[in-house]
Amino acid sequence: MSSVATIKRKVIPPHLEVKGGHQLSGVLKVSGAKNSSLVLMAAALLTKETLLIKNVPKLTDIEVLSEILLNLGAKLTKRNNSIEINSRCIHNAELPYQLVHSLRASFFCIGPLLARLGEAKIPLPGGCNIGARPVDEHINGLKALGAEVVINNEVVSAQVSTKNKRLHGANITLKYPSVGATETILMASCLAMGKTTISNAAREPEIQDLAKMLNSMGAKVSGAGTQRITIKGVKTLRGTSHSVIPDRIEAGTFLIASAITRSPLIVGPLVPNHLSAVILKLQECGCSISHHGNHYLKIIPREISGVDITTSPFPGFPTDLQAPFMSLMATAKGSSKIKEKVFEKRMQHVNELIKMGACISLEQNTAHIKGVKELIGSNVKGGDLRSSAAIILACISAKGNSIFTGLDHLDRGYEKLEEKLSNAGSIISRKFDQKTSQISFSNKKFTEDNIDTQKNAA
Ligand code: EPZ
């Protein structure tokens, strides 16, 4: 019997190679907020006039929503980080399934389409796999505004059947201060007849950014940023120019990058009030944070100790920074407890951090962490957007080399992350379609001669 060995060529998808353990220095620059940009782009459907949105990050989520708007008949012009959108000729109230499925924010189109055309047909949305993510609160809100809504084969069909096809104002109380539901109702009610109130509204900065842009389009929104928003409906909205707020989640990720690499950094532009809960926790665990001009923060990490966090809606500790903060706690002195209270499946980073030597035990949505001296580089994978960021922070601080796969998640929400980190001193680079050879043996006594190379084996 002859000995056989095979070389399988394994294709590694695009990935990051990271040489960990390097200090960072200088400034980490924050882009415009992804979650603001997405809803502001959908709001362009509310007017026939041109909207200019500035400081939009270049991300795949923005690309997908751009495709969806084009598909509806809008015209888009992109220049650097600005997008001009004109929705005068939208001819379609039905969103394409393929695109909607990869982007939860596509559901934002339902409110503006209903308000403008009196109808909308949108498949139930996809997006990050972090929990069930129902849309019942969006739908209840739209029904209260007078829409008839049916869900058939995972497609939501909504219409206003009155003669003038206009929604009407209503008093709506949300069961939970959902960001998306608040945004949907806010956009839909701008063009409704009469007054709408949203009680138990979400207070996130992205809601305030949306209300600010809607008001500059001629809407009459007050109370955004509080638990009660009032909207007096108007007949039409006009075009405007608006600059997106800085991304508080990217800013928080960079502050944590400083803490985890124990490197003093300047981070901005940002709005400190948008990050109060995060700043408090970073100070509590051992970082000194001070203003550096109006829009930047200077962070100097000292010895990092374990602190507990529980996520909650704004102004509480943001769920989107729970995973990055856990990477930090993995190397803190002492223990900490992290409770995820917003989404039910947002702990995908835990196993990857454990692979890197972290000491974490998970009890449903509560992680108990015992800090270790250092993490060790490994082959790791991001399972959703924020867990990807968390794992990359772990990689840049770890001892040794790491390979990170899961860039499709990362590219949805962080603009040029590896470029920004490497400009600040991390050794991190993106590699494409690299093939590595793995030799597997069916018999110990193989010789070089009978190696069978399977070039195309995946
Ligand atoms: C937004 O999601 C963000 N996405 C999320 O960002 C962010 O994590 C989240 O708000 C919380 O801050 C965008 O803005 C595009 P929610 P959203 O409605 O609107 C439940 C990221 O990584 N709920 O406030 O979907 C829901 O299941 C992401 O950038 C209902 O029960 O969040 C969840 O448990 C991911 N019924 C909770 O509310 C509903 O109708 C909060 O969800 C709606 C929500």
TrEMBL record:
GO terms for biological process: cell division; cell wall organization; peptidoglycan biosynthetic process; regulation of cell shape; UDP-N-acetylgalactosamine biosynthetic process. Coiled coil: none annotated. The gene is murA. The modification 2-(S-cysteinyl)pyruvic acid O-phosphothioketal is found at C128. HAMAP family: MurA. This is UDP-N-acetylglucosamine 1-carboxyvinyltransferase. One of its GO terms (molecular function) is UDP-N-acetylglucosamine 1-carboxyvinyltransferase activity. UDP-N-acetyl-alpha-D-glucosamine binds at R104, D320, V342. Residues 18-421 form the Enolpyruvate transferase domain. Its EC number is 2.5.1.7. It is an enzyme of class 2 (transferase). Its main location: cytoplasm. It is found in: Cytoplasm.
